[in-house]
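Please, structure for the following, as tokens.
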Amino acid sequence: MKTRIILAATLATFFATPAFAVTCPDLIIDVNSKLATAGDSMNEEVEGEIITLRNDGQDLLATGDDAACQEKLEEALSLFTQ
């Protein structure tokens, strides 16, 4: 029984990891697109924070920390609604 649980957990991790890797580049594109269309209407402080979060996300993606990358990029996207 323990072997099945370990095998199931291993397979779940194996198949979930690529999902994050595909999501982060899409999120980066989304952030860049929203920044381009926001123009001058965006608060400079908020824009700077979004850019910092996007850059942090890109760095995390490069190091392979996909979960943290996704978290940073989703935080950046949430700032567009404020």
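The CA atoms of residues 4 and 72 lie 34 Å apart. The radius of gyration is 16 Å.
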